[in-house]
Amino acid sequence: MKKITVYCGSNTGKDIAYKEGTIQLAQEMIKRDLDLVFGAGRVGLMGILADEMIHAGKNVFGIIPQKLVDIEVAHQGCTELTIVETMRDRKWLMAEKGDGFIAMAGGIGTLEELFEIMTLNQLGYIQKPLALYNIHGYYDKLLDFLRHATKAGFLHQAQVDLLIVSDDPVELLDRMKAFEPRYIEKWEVK
Questions:
Q1: Which of 18, 25, 46, 106 is placed for a possible disulfide with 13 were both Cys, Cβ 3.0 to 4.6 Å?
Q2: 146/46 Cα distance (integer angstroms)
Q3: For residue 126, what are the domain limits?
Q4: Is 53 within 8 Å of 26 (Cβ atoms)?
């Protein structure tokens, strides 16, 4: 694992824990000589993460649609800044470039990216580690919902078990490194 795609907010959130956790993740990635693939925003948690990585001399690959460049949120300090046409293009390129994925605190876009990677893994299009960096319990309610979806019979427990969850960046990256891909048959045969 060399390049980690990180999905996170274009806002910083109301609790300082999100910013602090972002810096801790960046420091651990730097320590492990990992590169960053991200949505190329200069704002929010995205900007904080990228700035930390850039200041340490790490490779930072930003991928952003032209529309967001036009409203001046693109991070110009990226090692490589790729401008694409659509959000869909951005998501696919971020999925292709990363050797593993981390979803941090974020809004609808982050949730969409998280579920897209879960789906790609589930269907076998990719087989890469996916982690929830659960800073300040941000994803606790989502994890409750995934348990509910499993109990209701719409999600297999084995699929949920592939999701790496931790509030500790050291544990998170250790578990991602140890990830072994598994294809799980999700279809019910009647």
A1: 18
A2: 26
A3: 120-138+154-178
A4: yes
User: Rounded CA gap, 64 and 40, in Å?
Assistant: 6
| pLDDT for the residue 30 | 98
Domain termination residue (choose one: 80, 108, 130): 80
Distance between first and last Cα of the chain: 39
Annotate 161-189 with DSSP letters as a single string: HTEEEES-HHHHHHHHHT--------PPP
pLDDT digits (tens, 9 = 90+) for 13-39: 999 999 999 999 999 999 999 999 999
Q: What is the pLDDT of residue 122?
A: 87
Considering the domain architecture, whether residues 76 and 124 belong to the same structural domain is answered as: no
User: Torsions phi, psi of 173, nearest 5?
Assistant: -70, -35
In the structure, what pLDDT confidence band is assigned to residue 189 with cuts at 50, 70 and 90?
Answer: low
Predicted TM-score of the model (pTM): 0.95
- Domain assignment present for residue 112? The answer is no
Number of domains making up the chain = 2
**169 is a domain residue:** yes
Tokens of 47: 């900007």
In the numeric block, which tokens belong to residue 28?
Answer: 């651990």
